[in-house]
Amino acid sequence: MFSFTALIDSANGFLMNTVGVGSIVGQGLRLLILFTMFFVMLLFHEKGTLTWSYLVIYLLVILQFIYGFNKSLSPLISDLMEVSKVIFIILIIQAFINLFNQKKITIDTIEKIFKISVLLFPLLIIIPKVFGVGYSMYANNTGFSGFFSAANDLNVVLLVMLVFSLDAFFNNLETRKKRKYYIVTTFMLIFSLILMGSKSSMGIGSIIIFIYLFKFLIKSDFGTKLKVLLSLIVVGSVSYTIINNFYYNDVQLALDRHTYFLNTADGDLASFLLTNRNSFFDASVQNLKSSDSILGETLIGKGKTQHMKDTGGSLNFESKDIEMDLFDVFFSYGLLGVFLIYSYFSGFIILAFKSINGNFKYSFSLLVMAAYSFFGGHVLFSALSGTFLALLCCGLYASFVACKEESLLNRKEVGTNKNVHIGNVM
């Protein structure tokens, strides 16, 4: 099911925009996965151990009932649905860890999911574009996201796919068959990010490409550099030809949109880069300052639903969050929520820094997603990008354990060889 997340979300977006039932179908599938992961987590739980994830899940659920006390059922259900997106991520990770520790699953499963996803996601953007169907990301037909409805969530997932595709391409330069596959997926992903037309897709995508070029070219021999150069010339030439002949207006509209917002920002670079998220943050701060229970809201928050309602009311929206995950967590769940959620994920961030040399694609992807989560949101409270955040954490954990076991094995072999050598001498 994780392998076909792209198909599920694309179909969900299509149903939501045509029939109006897509969100029900999507939420139903997510709940099915959530309960499945919960069952797997408990079934393969090691007796006598209590991990931090269990306590985080328990306390996050309890908080929602505190917010819903003396309120109608509707806000409680809404809050439970919102926090379930965070719990969904934790359940996937913990279910995988329990299975992995009991040798029921390996990192190969995660690798296969990403191998399928790097092809499916761009295909489900490019094919609708070719046939002239699908939806625009912004007003005035600017940007394109196929049938996906959660465009910002899709954006960060495509950036992660680009990391995996580039990593596989550079690591399979000597394997002609695999190299061709990842040349195609890399081209399709770059093309998809250009079609989406957002600042982050173009900016972060360019940074990812530059980092990989620098990382692999600096240590490669002349033959490898030549192969990469020829591949880049082919991809660049094909991309330029297709865009210039068929999609020039789409790219120009996106650039005009960004130029317009840069001019209207009147020199306020922060507002331009954050797409006015700083004004959403200011509205939330003012709401907190004017609250009758400022201490309580600072400590345990007021729930995601109320936070979005209050922020939206200050900005003439029905409902609006800040779209910067850390601050949405704080204004929704207070300092307690920040501690619970970020203490859990900080372990994986630390692991990413520690193992970036050995597990670069997982570590780098997780750091890209963490940065996107902070500045652009749409990660912790997104079922789509949240799924891939969970899969990245799973892959990072599994690869770290594998490297650690391999290191211990090598040490034992060295120790054994030393013993044999000493015995021979004596």
Helix and strand arrangement:
Layout: H1 5-18, H2 22-43, H3 52-67, H4 73-101, H5 107-130, E1 136-138, E2 142-144, H6 151-171, H7 176-196, H8 199-217, H9 222-246, H10 248-264, H11 269-273, H12 277-289, H13 294-300, H14 304-314, H15 325-354, H16 360-376, H17 383-425
Antiparallel strand pairs: 1-2
Please give the order of strands in the largest beta sheet.
1-2
Reading the helices and strands in chain order gives: HHHHHEEHHHHHHHHHHHH
Relative helix content? over 70%
Strand content: under 5%
Average pLDDT number:
85
Radius of gyration: 23 Å
Number of DSSP-assigned strands: 2
- Overall, the morphology is globular
Q: Whole-Å distance between the termini?
A: 60 Å
Query: What are the low-pLDDT stretches, counting only 5+ consecutive residues below 50?
Result: 419-426
Q: SS-based structural class?
A: mainly alpha
Major β-sheet, in short? 2 strands, antiparallel
Number of helices: 17
Structural notes for this entry:
By secondary structure, the chain is mainly alpha-helical. It has a domain at 124-274. It contains 17 helices and 2 strands. The chain has helices at residues 5-18, 22-43, 52-67, 73-101, 107-130, 151-171, 176-196, 199-217, 222-246, 248-264, 269-273, 277-289, 294-300, 304-314, 325-354, 360-376, 383-425, and strands spanning 136-138, 142-144. A two-stranded antiparallel ribbon has the order 1-2. A hairpin with a 3-residue loop joins strand 1 (136-138) and strand 2. Helix 5 (107-130) crosses helix 6. The radius of gyration is 23 Å and the shape is globular. It starts with a helix and ends with a helix. 39% of the residues are buried. Residues 419-426 have low confidence and may be disordered.
